[in-house]
């Protein structure tokens, strides 16, 4: 049996570099094969916790938040598109015109991690595709219910969660925990609660880090 590695993947569903980070991590794990037995947990982080439900124009938002010009935004988007294509993910920039609030998506992901095990990763990937490829609103409840059902989760249960405040406190607590521990940008990938990889790193960077952790025979996974 390969080295057991617990992976906490801290990210937001509206973060394109988080898609790149996840795809690179998955490719690295595939390269290592049976040498590593990974247990991946998706942890919440909101890039824009104050974003209203109707969202904001994406270019307007990036210009306001980061001071980027239209040319800079276009170049960054092309870099993201190309990186995604290399990893087999389609970023359709024509459809991603707005940025949205993602708190309810994180509540559903938290539920999926507790009650559906592997369903959490399926839901995370469905959210990435819905937003970045299809241009859907990851904060809209009917979109979230549809995605939950598509990956085999209970749609009625998802709808009840979304119509309540269930898991809100738990998600807020997780977000605060990571922020208090110095996580202020995503993706942040934590291996065995000990090693940190930040940003949308290439496959080779994840592969080297995983090999290092696998070689550390003193690592204990709780």
Structural account:
The structure is a single chain. With 222 residues, the protein is an alpha+beta fold. It has a single domain (3-48, 103-215), classed as Glutaredoxin (3-Layer(aba) Sandwich), CATH 3.40.30.10. The chain is 52% helix and 14% strand. The chain contains 9 helices and 6 strands. The strands form 2 sheets. A 4-stranded mixed β-sheet has the order 2-1-5-6. Strands 3-4 form a two-stranded antiparallel ribbon. Strand 1 (3-11), helix 1 (16-32) and strand 2 (36-44) form a beta-alpha-beta unit. Helix 5 packs across helix 6 (141-150) and helix 6 packs antiparallel against helix 7. The longest helix is centred in the first third of the chain and has 17 residues, at 16-32. The radius of gyration is 17 Å and the shape is globular. The two termini are 17 Å apart. The model is unreliable at 218-222 (pLDDT under 50).
């Amino acid at each position: 049996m390969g080295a057991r590695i617990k992976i906490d993947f801290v990210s937001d569903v509206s973060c394109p570099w988080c898609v790149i980070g996840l795809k690179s991590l998955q490719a690295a794990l595939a390269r290592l094969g049976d040498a590593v037995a990974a247990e991946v947990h998706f942890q919440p982080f909101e890039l824009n916790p104050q974003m209203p439900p109707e969202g904001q124009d994406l270019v307007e938002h990036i210009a306001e938040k980061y001071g980027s010009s239209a040319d800079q935004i276009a170049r960054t988007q092309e870099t993201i598109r190309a990186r995604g294509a290399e990893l087999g993910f389609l970023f359709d920039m024509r459809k991603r015109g707005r940025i949205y609030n993602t708190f309810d998506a994180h509540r559903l992901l938290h539920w999926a991690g507790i009650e559906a095990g592997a369903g959490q990763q399926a839901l995370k990937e469905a959210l990435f595709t819905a937003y970045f490829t299809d241009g859907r609103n990851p904060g809209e409840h009917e979109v979230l219910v549809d995605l939950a059902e598509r990956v085999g989760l209970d749609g009625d249960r998802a709808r009840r969660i979304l119509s309540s405040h269930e898991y809100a406190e738990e998600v807020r607590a997780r977000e605060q925990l990571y922020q208090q521990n110095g996580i202020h940008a995503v993706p942040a990938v934590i291996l065995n609660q000990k090693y940190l990889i930040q940003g949308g790193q290439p496959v080779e960077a994840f592969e080297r880090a995983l090999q290092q952790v696998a070689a550390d025979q003193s690592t204990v996974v709780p």
